[in-house]
Structure formats: C-alpha cells, structure tokens
C-alpha cells in the first residue's frame, strides 16, 4: 500500500494571497502570428519538450486538490493542439473545479465550440483586435476574420455561461477601432476587455510607440456611452464597467497604468511545465522533470508547488522605456 499523499487544501503565498487560479498553456504553437505576441518566423518547441496531454491533466488534478477552483487553458492557440478535446473531457468535471475557461483566437471554434461546452468549459475568451478583414490579417499576419466571426457565432450557439472578446489596443494600428469593437460586443450581447500591450518577447516594433493606456481608451468610450464602474470580478485582473441598458461588461486589464498585483491569485504553467509565479517576472519552478521522474508519485510535484509559493513575487515591473523587453520570453510561450 502506497504512502498517503500529503497535500494542503489551499495554496497561500508569502504575502498571504490565496492562489486559486491557474493558467495552463498546452502548446506554444498557433495558427496566427499576432504582431504583439510573437515574431513572424517562429521556432517552436520539439514535441518531447512539451507537456503531454496526460501530464497536463495530472497537473490540473493536483492543483485542484490544492484548492484551485479556476483553470484557464491557453496556448499558443490551445485548440490547434491535437486531441485537446480529450484534455477538456478529462478535467471538465473535476470535483472542486468551479470554472474551466479557454482563451482562443477563435479560428477553431466553428467546429469545436459545441464539444468544448459539453466537456465542461464554462467561459470562453476570444482574441479579436480588429473588425476590418484587411487590418485583422495585418495584425495576425495570417488570420481570416470571417472564420473568427463564425467561431464567435458558434460559441454563442453553444451557450457558454460567458463569452468575452479580448482586444489589445495599439496606437497607429487599431486604436481607432476601440469604439467599433465595443459596439460589436454590445450588438452580440457579449463582454469585452481591453488589454494594454505587454513587453514580452522581442517583436518587430517599438512598444513605446504603440502603447495606449486603458485610461485613454476608457475616455474615448465615455464620449459615446454612459459607463458605470463595477466591483464585479471574474477572478482575473480585469476591472469592469457596466453600460446601462446593455448586457455587456467592459473590462480593462492594465499591467502598465494600474498595477493589479496586490490581489494576484494566479500562477501560470507553460507548455514546458515551467511554473511561473508572475507573468512579468522570471521566478519559475520546473515541474516537467518531476512529472517524468516520478510518474506514479505526486508528492514531489506537490512539494515543489507548495515551496514555489515562497518565491511568488509581490508584483511585476513593466517599463516600456527599457531598451530590452521586461521579459525575454514570448507571450505565446508563457500562455496568453
């Protein structure tokens, strides 16, 4: 008979914050090449350096036993991972898991939305930075807007608890579309979050030139809509506003202009099994070697996760004036 697994029922970091939300990247690959996320000519990881879906499921199960109630599956583009549906079915109905969420570019939703909902995915975030087909292709380098729009409709048809658009606003690129994106969300009766561009990975433009603060975006929207500040939260860093007479919540994720670290409740796991304690810092614990060296014993993995809480930093440090990006890894590596 094997020894009893010693596992805490909650993860508490050195600052007393409870970690109950993980973001797990299941691939660094993507069928888009968004200009703020990755270089045009990307080299992706060899298959054996990426967590297997079985390892992904094992990690989720461990974290849920440790009090994590929200799991977001990300990429790259998670829905291009072969057999990803198996993972959603494996973890979608775990006892203690209140929310299984997916962040996607929408390209695969037309065919996968219904199966994801059935597997237990409750909410879905879809990245859309332009409603102009030509501009959408410029931002994504390869993306087809109509395919994504059909994916949004498929998600609506599948009746997720919530659908939200994520839009990264960039000066001189799509900042003139902030209002159009909101009008689209209102028309579709879905939510939208505006995200300040983050200095992750060396990309093909100077981020200081394209950065738009969310305060600026909010001011632009308020010229056309009455917006009421809300205390609502979906467990992430967004601050929400309501527009009277609509079903749409408007969120702002502001890593530069508003540091949201004081209430940080999440950690990220890369597709390489690296546990990052903060998106904007390099504090990290490697879980893949432990998973592979101890295939039938979760205790070393549990211990590593518990110990990692002592190196979770108080906050991140994003500075656009730096010559080099604050973090050298691409957004697609850490998980969107």
Structural overview:
By secondary structure, the protein is α/β, with parallel strands linked by helices. The chain contains eleven helices and twelve strands. It has helices at 53-65, 84-91, 109-119, 133-140, 145-158, 178-188, 207-210, 214-222, 288-293, 299-308, 331-334, and strands at 21-25, 70-74, 99-104, 123-127, 162-168, 191-195, 228-229, 239-242, 249-253, 266-269, 274-276, 284-286. The model is unreliable at 200-207 and 318-329 (pLDDT under 50).
| Spans where pLDDT lies below 50 across 5 or more residues | 200-207, 318-329
Question: How far apart lie the N and C ends?
Answer: 41 Å
Largest sheet: 12 strands, mixed
What is the count of helical runs?
A: 11
Strand numbers in spatial order across the main sheet: 7-8-9-6-5-4-3-2-1-10-11-12
Secondary structure: number of strands: 12
Topology pattern, helix = H, strand = E:
EHEHEHEHHEHEHHEEEEEEHHH
Query: What does the radius of gyration come to?
Result: 19 Å
The computed structural class is alpha/beta
Report the helical percentage.
25-40%
3D shape: globular
Average pLDDT figure:
88
Percentage of β-strand residues: 15-25%
């Amino acid at each position: 008979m094997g020894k009893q697994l010693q596992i805490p029922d909650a993860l508490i970091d050195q600052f007393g914050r409870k970690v109950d939300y993980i973001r797990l990247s299941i691939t660094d690959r993507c069928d888009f090449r968004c200009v703020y996320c990755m270089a045009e000519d990307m080299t992706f990881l060899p298959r054996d350096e990426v967590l297997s879906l079985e390892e992904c499921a094992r990690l989720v199960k461990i974290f849920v036993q440790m009090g994590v109630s929200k799991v977001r599956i990300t990429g790259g583009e998670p829905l291009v991972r072969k057999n990803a549906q198996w993972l959603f079915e494996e973890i979608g109905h775990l006892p203690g898991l209140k929310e299984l969420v997916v962040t996607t570019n929408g390209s695969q939703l037309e065919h996968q939305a219904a199966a994801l909902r059935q597997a237990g995915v409750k909410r879905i975030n879809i990245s859309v930075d332009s409603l102009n087909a030509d501009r959408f292709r410029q931002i994504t380098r390869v993306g087809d807007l109509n395919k994504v729009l059909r994916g949004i409709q498929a998600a609506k048809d599948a009746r997720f608890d919530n659908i939200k658009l994520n839009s990264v606003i960039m000066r001189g690129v799509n900042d003139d579309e902030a209002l159009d994106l909101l009008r689209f969300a209102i028309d579709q009766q879905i939510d939208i979050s505006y995200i300040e561009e983050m200095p992750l990975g060396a990309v093909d433009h100077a981020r200081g030139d394209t950065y738009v603060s969310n305060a600026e975006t909010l001011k632009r929207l308020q010229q056309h809509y009455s917006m009421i500040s809300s205390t609502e939260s979906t467990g992430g860093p967004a601050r929400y506003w309501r527009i009277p007479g609509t079903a749409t919540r408007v969120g702002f994720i502001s890593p530069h202009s508003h540091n949201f670290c004081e209430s940080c409740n999440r950690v990220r796991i890369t597709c390489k099994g690296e546990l990052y304690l903060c998106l904007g810092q390099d504090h990290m614990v490697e879980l893949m070697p432990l998973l592979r060296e101890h295939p039938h014993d979760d205790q070393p993995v549990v211990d590593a996760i518990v110990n990692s809480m002592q190196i979770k930093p108080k906050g991140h440090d994003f500075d656009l004036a730096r010559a080099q990006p604050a973090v050298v890894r691409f957004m697609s590596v850490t998980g969107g």
